């Protein structure tokens, strides 16, 4: 998005594994990406935890498919994720989305107060993240996929769908 706020990084993320990684520790550490138009992949290769370099390197990736599917792949996870300290940086894995609203400040009428609303979060059970494992997120159907009024009103989605001719 076009809005920058330091709390958005805590509430808007696609994170196969968020921790206090230090990619500059080793020449062999890289963060690479690939986009072929169908899938966008980011790979953290041989990255080390800041101050805990002796536990070994981590290699994992996130693949965002144009269909909405998201796959997290874990090649090397040298220690249980539950043992990674969160004192310097949050440790989490999953998806989160939020938006920010500028509200008039009651104290200073000319200024605006930023309020962040986190509306959806999926947290992975980090005890299940191990070497040579993967997690796949498959999107649920939504009203936006319908191309006509007929398709929409006859849909068997799990929520109340209605057609908007403007869209």
TrEMBL record:
One of its GO terms (cellular component) is membrane. It is a single-pass type I membrane protein. It comes from the Eukaryota. Keywords: Membrane, Signal, Transmembrane, Transmembrane helix. It is found in: Membrane. Belongs to the plexin family. This is PLDX1 protein. It comes from Scytalopus superciliaris. The gene is Plxdc1.
């Amino acid at each position: 998005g076009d809005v920058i706020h330091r709390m958005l990084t805590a509430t808007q993320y696609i994170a196969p594994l968020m921790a206090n990684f230090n990619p500059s520790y080793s020449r062999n550490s890289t963060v690479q990406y690939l986009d072929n138009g169908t899938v966008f992949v980011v790979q953290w290769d041989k990255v080390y935890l800041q101050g805990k370099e002796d536990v070994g390197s981590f290699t994992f990736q996130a693949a965002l498919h144009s269909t909405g599917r998201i796959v997290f792949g874990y090649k090397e996870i040298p220690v249980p994720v539950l043992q990674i300290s969160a004192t310097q940086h949050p440790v989490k894995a999953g998806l989160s989305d939020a938006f920010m609203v500028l509200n008039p400040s009651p104290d200073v009428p000319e200024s605006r107060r930023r309020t962040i609303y986190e509306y959806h979060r999926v947290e992975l059970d980090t005890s299940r993240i191990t070497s040579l494992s993967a997690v796949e997120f498959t999107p649920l159907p939504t009203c936006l996929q319908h191309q006509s009024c007929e398709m929409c009103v006859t849909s068997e989605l799990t929520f109340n769908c209605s057609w908007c001719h403007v869209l």
